Amino acid sequence: MNSVRCCGDQFKPKKFGTSLWKKLLHLFMAHILRIHDPDEKEGTWSMVQKNGTQFTLNDQPFYVNGFNTYWLMIFAADETTRGKVTELFEHASALNLSVCRTWAFNDGQYRALQKSPSVYDEEVFKGLDFVISEARKYKIRLILSLVNNWEPYGGKSQYVKWGKDDGLNLACDDDFFSHPTIKSYYKAHVYTVLNRVNTVTNITYKDDPTIFAWELMNEPRCESDPSGDKLQTWIEEMSAYVKSIDPKHLLEIGLEGFYGPSTPNKVQCNPNTYYQCVGTDFIRNHQVLGVDFASVHIYPDWFSQPISDESIEFIESWMQSHIDDGENILGMPVLFPEFGVSTKDPGYNDTYRHIFITTIYRTILNSTKKGSSGGGSLLWQLFPEDEFCSQIPSSTRIEIKNTEVRPTPGSLSP
Q: Is 316 a residue of the active site?
């Protein structure tokens, strides 16, 4: 999620408790999420793997019912806010949420993990150690993203700034994907994170089953090269590099799901023609050796402003197209690691939000009933119900509680 895009949203406290939506969410949990927990049955804590188009855990199907909370490391690094991390995992565990997606980066920003290339703040790293240890305690697995495409928390622009500070001649932020020195900065970060020994559990990150997957980048785009070649080469190089360090964990790219030049017959499935020119290519990118599953994000404001019933039709076809691709072309699970809708979107209303969320869960549930490639979804995003939420810079704030989804009050300010 581009956390700048909707910054400043305000939400009124309004419950979404309609019987249909409740029934769908209960069905989703009951039928595919922890019908029996393989870890509990075996008394172990094992790594999630994949078998064809399915995620598996101890040779049983594993489906993701998850959430995004990107700020966990930053709050865990401060003793005065660390308890909020535990509180959030308690909420999530009580709802049988199985996977959390969060950042394993903060580059050159407030409470930076990486203050400059290969220079780390140990206290912030200990915050990430705590996040992983708490997730394990509450039986929640983590998708850890390794860098941002966007400026918040540093992103590729911070890497390019570091390069310029070191005297490199760099033309634009997309040089992140091609300049050898910038790539070496990123590889050094990957190496440091994957080989980190957790100060709480004494387990090396690359050996910890708490980590569901590594994500190369949050929402990579390379608009300076619409052909997609520059980003494709970067994905190939970095996927091989991650797997050379850690062949055990699953790996994903972090893409939003836009079709590109390799599939001209599919670009009409994109929200509009702009998205076929952002340098990504869903099919081609996910055919890279080492990439284990596909990622697709879902935001109705991509498709139309104002949002409308027509965007619901788009969401259904957008999801089904990618699920079919996972099944018939890629041969891998398809995960929807971000979905959300902003109250600031023109045309937003409570009824639309209900229909939107219902559509997401119904589509995934239908896929899982067929044994197809739909691997689950992660809501953007989960917060405990507390005044501390106003401290978080964010694009969207959503709370899940008692199987209801509702907006949380408070303004969003950096």
A: no
